[in-house]
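Postdoc handover notes: sequence design on the structure in folder B. Input tokens:
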């Protein structure tokens, strides 16, 4: 059924062969496992630091979902996020992440000196906003977790909001006026980046890692990154460079006055325990 739906003509029939049977069985197992996984606490959040390029201080974390499967070990989100979206489980999962990450962040703010303003970024998809109470529900959740709305950063891709209607935009606006931050994920890879910037007032643009990968190689990428950083300064938006993996990139980004960065150079996504440890001192910049 999913296969037929994913074709250009969703009404078309698809011949069901043995290979597809095997795929369907595998997929059904994945779905069943996922339903159990939430109740059994198999999902965990890893936290990847987002640091100041001036000081190396960890300013926030991005919450990244991981599945600790009892037989298969750590299962990558690439394998299950698509299924979660198609089956609607993504909503339940997203709420779980929002709540867990918000609670944890508030705990760190109170517990570890110097981190009272620690923020948390959570990836959300347009599907979550189809619930018409999304904004109110999230604001109540934050209140319950005692986290001020300004510390919650929702990461959205341009793509995930392209097909959505006014109702979704209204929910976003409501969150925005309550202080929740909106961050554009993978910026530069969508179709209509610039017109979207006009429609919303985003707090942060996260430059897609494909630009950062090539930033030091004297080509277009470097000019594009510099242009996005300047855009951020002019439009009073924060900029985060994603996927920073080496010290040359750090040095160049600092020269360009890019305010924040994230990537393996600073830290991989960390377990809760390890994340706790990196909060007590700045990360090294070079
Ligand atoms: O699309 P988004 O930016 O939310 O993707 C986050 C993913 O990127 C995570 O799964 C994380 O493990 C991965 N990631 C984080 N830092 C780096 C990096 O420096 N290089 C690469 N290749 N991937 C990274
Ligand atoms: Mn992200």
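Designed sequence:
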């Amino acid at each position: 059924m999913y296969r037929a739906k994913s074709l250009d003509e969703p009404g078309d029939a698809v011949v069901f062969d043995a290979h597809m049977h095997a795929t369907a069985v595998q997929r059904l197992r994945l779905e069943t496992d996922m339903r159990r996984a939430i109740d059994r606490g198999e999902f965990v959040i890893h936290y990847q630091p987002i640091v100041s390029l001036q000081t190396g201080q960890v300013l926030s974390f991005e919450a990244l979902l991981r599945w600790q499967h009892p037989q298969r070990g750590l299962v990558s989100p690439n394998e299950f996020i698509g299924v979660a979206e198609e089956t609607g489980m993504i909503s339940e999962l997203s709420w779980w992440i929002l709540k867990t990450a918000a609670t944890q962040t508030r705990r760190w703010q109170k517990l570890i000196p110097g981190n009272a303003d620690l923020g948390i970024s959570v990836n959300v998809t347009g599907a979550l906003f189809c619930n018409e109470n999304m904004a109110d529900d999230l604001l109540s959740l934050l209140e319950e977790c005692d986290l001020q709305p300004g510390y919650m950063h929702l990461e959205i891709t341009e793509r995930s909001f392209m097909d959505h209607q006014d109702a979704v935009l209204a929910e976003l606006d409501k969150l925005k006026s309550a202080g929740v931050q909106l961050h554009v994920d993978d910026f530069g890879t969508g179709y209509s980046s610039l017109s979207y910037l006009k429609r919303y007032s985003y707090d942060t643009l996260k430059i897609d890692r494909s630009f950062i990968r090539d930033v030091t190689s004297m080509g277009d990428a470097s000019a594009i990154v510099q242009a996005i950083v300047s855009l951020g300064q002019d439009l009073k938006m924060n900029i985060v460079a994603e996927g920073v993996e080496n010290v040359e990139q750090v040095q160049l980004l600092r020269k360009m006055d890019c305010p924040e960065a994230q990537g393996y150079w600073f830290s991989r996504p960390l377990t809760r325990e390890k994340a706790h440890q990196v909060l007590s001192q700045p990360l090294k910049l070079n």
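Context for whoever picks this up: Residues 48, 64, 123, 185-186, 209, 242-245, 263-264, 269 surround guanosine-5'-monophosphate (ligand 1) (CB under 6 Å). Don't rerun without checking with the PI first.
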